[in-house]
């Protein structure tokens, strides 16, 4: 798919990966409809996209509310690409995790994606074309200590995406996953209320602009799964083949890094 002139809806576009993805889409000629709860930074992102020469709209939307997701999609008209990116994390040991935090993460990270997908699917299926890109995480492939609640939401995202991909196979739609490591954004201001593993923080980190490019590539070629950075991709492959060894190595590396 050539993104030039296409209509792209992005959630969580006020900052971080969402903002970077909006700007990268705009640079590739796509018209963007951006959703997030924080209106002022969302408007700034939309203005930056318009400065590139494309159409950009900012829609205040809380993805935990199905009606907001429907309104966001309706504002876009015919949607060529949906990027489900909205999410947040609170890192706590499972013994200490607050039920409200666990529920809020699932409502945003998983059900927010479900609501937006269900809002956009009827139109895409009727037209026989469209691409859905879900931003998951390596935390949806492997569980990490002190990240259990967040991991659960991303495992759910990946399971939903795999099922959706099978459901629309042969119907003109494409479904893709982007699974970044820890991203250098304000996302972790909330997450770091607990303490994330040292190995994840240092050797699996990736800049939001790099994730944004992966999101755009996924929209263009429909490739099923992208894991980044490269070390994370190699490590996740090892985890799938040798899960006990992968967990052992991550614990050892984290212990060394956290002593520094």
Question: How does this structure look, described?
Answer:
- The protein is an alpha/beta fold and 260 residues long.
- A seven-stranded parallel beta sheet has the order 3-2-1-4-5-6-7, with helices on both faces.
- Helix 5 links the parallel strand 5 (130-135) and strand 6 (173-180).
- It is 54% helix and 15% strand.
- Residues 192-196 have low confidence and may be disordered.
- It is built from ten helices and seven strands.
- The N and C termini lie far apart (46 Å).
- Helix 4 (99-127) runs parallel beside helix 5 and helix 9 packs across helix 10.
- The longest helix is centred in the middle third of the chain and has 29 residues, at 99-127.
Gist of the model:
The chain has 260 residues and is α/β, with parallel strands linked by helices.
Descriptive labels:
260 residues, alpha/beta, 10 helices, globular
* Poorly predicted runs: 192-196
Structural class: alpha/beta
Largest sheet: 7 strands, parallel
Radius of gyration: 18 Å
Beta-strand segment tally: 7
Give the averaged pLDDT, no decimals.
90
Helical residue percent band: 40-55%
- From the N-terminal CA to the C-terminal CA, the straight-line distance is 46 Å
Overall 3D shape: globular
Percent of residues in β-strands: 5-15%
What is the H-and-E element order? EHEHEHEHEHEHHHEHH
């Amino acid at each position: 798919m050539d993104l030039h002139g296409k209509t792209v809806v992005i959630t969580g576009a006020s900052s971080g990966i969402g903002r970077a993805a909006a700007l990268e889409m705009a640079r590739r000629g796509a018209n963007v409809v951006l959703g997030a709860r924080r209106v002022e930074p969302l408007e700034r992102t939309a203005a930056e996209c318009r400065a590139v020469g494309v159409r950009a709209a900012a829609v205040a939307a809380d993805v935990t509310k199905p009606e907001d997701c429907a309104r966001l999609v309706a504002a876009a008209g015919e949607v060529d690409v949906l990027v489900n990116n909205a999410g947040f994390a609170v890192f706590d040991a499972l013994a200490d995790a607050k039920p409200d935090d666990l529920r809020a993460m699932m409502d945003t990270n998983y059900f927010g994606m479900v609501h937006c997908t269900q809002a956009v699917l009827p139109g895409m299926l009727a037209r026989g074309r469209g691409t859905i890109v879900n931003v998951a995480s390596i935390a949806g492939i492997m569980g990490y200590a002190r990240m259990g609640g967040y991991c659960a939401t991303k495992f759910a995202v990946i399971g939903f995406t795999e099922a959706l991909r099978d459901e629309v196979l042969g119907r003109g739609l494409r479904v893709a996953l982007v699974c970044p490591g820890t991203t250098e954004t304000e996302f972790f201001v909330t997450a770091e209320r607990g303490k994330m593993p040292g190995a994840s923080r240092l050797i699996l980190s990736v800049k939001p602009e790099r994730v944004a490019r992966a999101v755009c590539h996924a929209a263009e070629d429909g490739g099923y799964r992208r894991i980044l950075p490269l070390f994370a991709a190699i490590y996740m492959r090892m985890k799938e083949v040798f899960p006990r060894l992968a967990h052992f190595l991550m614990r050892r590396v984290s212990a060394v890094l956290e002593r520094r």
